[in-house]
Design goal:
Blueprint: H1 2-5, E1 10-11, H2 12-16, H3 23-35, E2 39-44, E3 47-52, H4 58-85
Antiparallel strand pairs: 1-3, 2-3
Length: 86
């Protein structure tokens, strides 16, 4: 769903169709994504349209960057240790 939404807004049925899931299941997934701040929705009449939230991945990017820095530090220490063994 996120991959499809990265190409632009889509209705619930447009998101559910390629996945072969029922609309209630799609709505459940989308409500979790919306609660997590990943997507936003608008309702016009009977059509609910979802889109990626503009700031959705800022927190994820920060978390990944922190983990990457931590791993790099650990690997640098390992490399220093192994260099000292030679």
């Amino acid at each position: 769903m996120i991959d499809q939404l990265s190409r632009g807004p889509a209705s619930v049925s447009e998101l559910a169709r390629p996945l072969g899931i029922a609309l209630p299941s799609a709505l459940k997934h989308l409500s979790v994504l919306e609660a997590g701040g990943i997507v936003r929705s608008d309702k016009v009449g009977r059509i609910r349209t979802y889109r990626i939230a503009p700031d959705a991945f800022g927190g994820i990017e920060a978390w990944v960057a922190a983990r990457k820095a931590q791993w790099n530090r650990q690997l640098d220490r390992l490399a220093d240790y192994l260099d000292g063994e030679e």
